[in-house]
């Protein structure tokens, strides 16, 4: 099996992180991914709603391996009278995980403004005790403040900022001791792993069946792979494995998903993944993710496709916040993906 290209994977991850792609804001990240797929020697197919598919070759029943390119973020709900922005989440983003984060606001006219997510009042020293202890709420006491000298709604609207504009959070990538800290490990780290697998296939990794790489752009709101190309029989989602007190997932390992908040993953496919992991010596665990987790494979099943679906991914802490995983987790995810698709 071709060794994990650590350098390529990390560089690709950082390039993807540099492209803001709040769910629905897909064009730039789709274009970059399609160009990278061509550079690797494959031909990308763009889906109508946003997404990229590449045929990696092989023969027989088709397996789609998917990772998603979209990030959670915010949208302008309305412009407040003081020029700040009332916002709503796009995907599962919560105030306590993004207050004080730097952001970029994308206007419908193509302008980009920087800003910050703030509580109101915004300074703890001039906030009454009762308000200090009030949870953050996007509707009531959390807003985005633009890095512009605006004090009224009219001044903000004059910049071109309006309801419906996308707001992207700063990823803040850093790495120390093999630990990777960044927003959007979910799921740009896994998209980078999938591109690294594609590089290995280009370099001679033999496939045991026909394989498609499917980069979806709407996973965070539930319909990333609600459409599948003709002939797909199995879907393997590469996505993060959230860690927690009652979870088996570990940042340095790859998890094989047994069940999420919707339903169990296909038992036969999970057994095949376990066997592939054992034969390849991959450091893995089994895990169950409830009550709020789902992956792109679920979307295909819910859309009515007659498929088997499975999911694997690196253990990841602080999911949907400032996330942390480990390079070993990415390596083990790569090795299990490769072990599952290669010809023995």
Annotation keywords:
344 residues; alpha/beta; Aminopeptidase; Elongation Factor Tu (Ef-tu), domain 3; 2 domains; 9-stranded mixed sheet; 6-stranded antiparallel sheet
Low-confidence segments, ≥5 residues, pLDDT <50? none
CATH superfamily placement of the largest domain: Zn peptidases
Estimate the strand proportion. 25-35%
H/E element order: HHEEEEEEEHEHEEEHEEEEHEHEEH
> What is the average of the pLDDT values?
96
Q: What is the radius of gyration?
A: 21 Å
Count of DSSP E strands? 18
Helicity level, as a percent range?
25-40%
Instruction: Please give the alpha-carbon distance between the first and last residues.
Output: 10 Å
Largest sheet: 9 strands, mixed
Q: Which structural class matches the secondary elements?
A: alpha/beta
CATH architecture of the largest domain: 3-Layer(aba) Sandwich
Number of domains: 2
Tally of separate helices: 8
CATH class of the largest domain: Alpha Beta
Outline, from the CA principal axes? Answer: globular
CATH topology name of the largest domain: Aminopeptidase
């Amino acid at each position: 099996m071709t060794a994990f290209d650590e350098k390529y994977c990390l560089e690709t991850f950082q390039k993807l992180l540099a492209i803001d792609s709040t769910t629905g804001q897909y064009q730039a990240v789709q274009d970059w991914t399609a160009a990278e797929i061509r550079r690797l020697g494959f031909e990308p197919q763009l889906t109508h709603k946003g997404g990229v598919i590449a045929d990696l070759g092989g023969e027989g029943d088709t397996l789609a391996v998917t990772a998603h390119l979209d990030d959670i973020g915010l949208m302008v709900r309305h412009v407040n009278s003081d020029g700040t922005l009332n916002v709503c989440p796009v995907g599962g983003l919560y105030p306590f995980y993004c207050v004080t984060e730097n952001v970029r606001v994308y206007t419908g006219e193509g302008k980009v403004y920087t800003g910050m997510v703030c509580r109101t009042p915004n300074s703890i020293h001039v906030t009454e005790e009762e308000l200090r202890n009030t949870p953050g709420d996007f509707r009531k006491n959390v807003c985005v403040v633009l890095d512009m000298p605006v004090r009224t709604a009219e001044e903000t609207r004059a910049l071109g900022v309006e309801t419906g504009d996308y707001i992207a959070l700063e990823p803040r990538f850093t790495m120390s001791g093999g630990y990777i800290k960044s927003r959007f490990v979910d799921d740009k780290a896994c998209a980078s792993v999938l591109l690294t697998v594609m590089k290995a296939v280009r370099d001679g990794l033999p496939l045991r069946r026909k394989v498609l790489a499917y980069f979806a752009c709407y996973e965070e709101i539930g319909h990333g792979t609600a459409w599948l190309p003709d002939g797909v029989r199995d879907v393997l989602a590469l996505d993060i494995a959230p860690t927690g007190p009652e979870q088996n997932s570990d940042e340095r390992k790859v998890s094989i998903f047994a069940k999420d908040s919707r339903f169990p993953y296909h038992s036969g496919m999970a057994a095949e993944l376990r066997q592939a992991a054992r034969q390849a010596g991959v450091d893995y665990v089994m895990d169950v993710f409830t009550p709020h987790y789902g992956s792109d494979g679920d979307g295909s099943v819910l859309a009515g496709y007659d498929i088997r679906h499975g999911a694997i991914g690196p253990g990841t802490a602080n999911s949907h916040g400032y996330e942390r995983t480990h390079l070993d987790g990415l390596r083990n995810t790569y090795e299990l993906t490769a072990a599952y698709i290669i010809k023995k």
